[in-house]
Specification:
mainly alpha, Four Helix Bundle (Hemerythrin (Met), subunit A), two-stranded antiparallel ribbon, 5% strand
Length: 171
């Protein structure tokens, strides 16, 4: 299953840019490819590069990584709730506030990457064990409809979006 199976009512317009970046792969393959790509890119960087921000009020690479981890947790939590047919309207979250509170720049890259791998492996395990009915369930998060399978593709596209920014503005 690729993003081509998604219908417009499965995600809000805000997420269209991330869905567009997640084409060609099924959810599991996309998550695994992204993991391998991220580990390769981050493994080649120096501490100075990891702590660099290209402009004032922009995140460092460490902060981007923790943002990806936090966002994946939020999206996976939403996916779990909806995969269990929970109709609760889930609230949004302020990602900038999360980054400020993360203390990412005080953490070692080893600790960040250990957490990244743990979260990614948990996300892969979650999606591997969802049936078609669960994947197609549409819930409401942050006031917009979203399907479980769209959340999987959003995780993929969101990471690809930030990986592109890292390559273009940081390296």
């Amino acid at each position: 299953m690729t993003t081509h199976v998604l219908t417009q009512n499965e995600f809000g317009e805000y997420y269209a840019k991330y869905i567009a970046l997640a084409t060609d792969d099924d959810i599991i393959t996309g998550l695994e490819k992204n993991r391998d790509m991220t580990l390769k890119i981050i493994g080649s960087l120096t501490e100075a590069q990891l702590n660099y921000a290209y402009a004032e009020d922009k995140w460092t690479i460490k902060e981007i990584l923790v943002h990806l981890i936090d966002s994946e947790r939020v999206f996976s939590y939403r996916a779990l709730r909806f995969a269990r047919f929970d109709n609760t309207n889930l609230p949004g979250y302020e990602h900038n506030d999360y980054v400020v509170q993360s203390d990412a720049n005080k953490r070692s890259i080893e600790a960040i990457m250990e957490e990244y791998k743990a979260v990614r492996n948990a996300t892969i395990a979650l999606f591997k064990n969802l049936n078609d009915k669960a994947l197609q369930f549409i819930g409401t998060a942050n006031g917009s409809p979203i399907s479980v399978r769209a959340l999987g593709f959003i995780i993929i596209g969101h990471e690809r979006h930030h990986s592109s920014i890292i390559r273009e503005r940081y390296l």
